[in-house]
Structure formats: structure tokens, C-alpha cells
Amino acid sequence: MDTSNHNIATLFSQLGLDNSPESIDKFIRNHRIPSDMLISEAPFWNDGQRHFIEESLRADADWSEMIDELDTLLR
User: Fold this and answer.
1) 4-57: pLDDT as tens digits
2) Which domain does 15 fall in, by range?
3) What is the CATH number of the domain that holds 38?
């Protein structure tokens, strides 16, 4: 069972992305998605990232809240 503290930095790490505050800010500035697109459909995810996001949201997993927060930041 995953008992780690889930926040934006740990989500970025889980997605295989640099999770420094500067890198997170840069990612959010450089990656925007339209309001009618699901976060998992964003063109900048690789297959593994897309799968993780889809499965986490489908299962309402512990990561869902952080994925929803990232979704909001990307709009």
C-alpha cells in the first residue's frame, strides 16, 4: 500500500518528471490544455504517463486529488 504524502512534487516524480519547484512552474507555464480536453488526452504525455493518469482517475486512487489539482493548473 502506498502511504507516501501526495503533493504536486511527488506527482511529478511519479510521472517521471523533474519535480523541482522551478521545473514544475515551467511545465505548467509551457503546457496548457483546453477546457474541453481530458487531462489524460493532453498531447504532451507519453504512453506510461497517460496510462497512470487514466488508471488513477478511473480507480479514484490516492493520486486522483493531485491529478485533479494539476488538471486545474494546466487550464
Assistant:
1) 688 999 999 999 999 999 999 999 999 999 999 999 999 999 999 999 999 999
2) 8-73
3) 1.10.10.1130
